[in-house]
Amino acid sequence: MPLTALDIYKILPKTNCGECGFPTCLAFAMQLATKKAAIDACPYASDDAKATLAGAAAPPIRLVTIGPQDCSIGIGKETVLFRHEETFYHPPPIAVRVTTDRPPEDLREALARVRALEFERVGQALRVEIVALEDAAGEPERFAAAATSAAEAGFVLMLMSETPAVLDAAAARMRQDRPLLYAATEDNWQAVAQVAKTHKCPLAVRGRNLVALADLTARIAAQGVTDLVLDSGARDHAATLQGLTQIRRLALRKMFRPLGYPALAFVTARHPLDQVMQGTAYIGKYAALLVTGELEPWQALALVTARQNIYTDPQKPIQVEAGIHTVGTPDEASPVLVTTNFSLTYFTVEGDAEASRAPAWIVVVNTEGQSVMTAWAADKFNAETIAKAIQESGIADRVTHRRAVIPGGVAAISGKLEDLSGWQILVGPRESAGLPAFLRAQWKQAGVAA
Amino acid sequence: MSLELVKETWPGKIFTITIGATAAEGGTRARTVTLGGHGALPFLPGDAPSPHPPLVAMEVMDVVPPDWPEHLRAPLADVLASPADWARKCVEDCGADLVCLRLQAPHPEWKDASPDEAAATVRAVLQAVPVPLIILGCGHADKDNEVWPRVTEAARGERCLVGMAVPENYKTLVVACLADGHNVLAEAPIDVNIQKQLNILITEMGLSADRIVLHPGNASLGYGLEYEYSIMERIRLAGLQGDRMLSQPMLAVVGEEAWKAKEARLPEGAMPAWGAEALRGPAWEAATAAAFLQAGADMVVLVHPETAATVRRTITELTKGSAA
Question: ipTM surpassing 0.85, yes or no?
Answer without folding.
Answer: yes
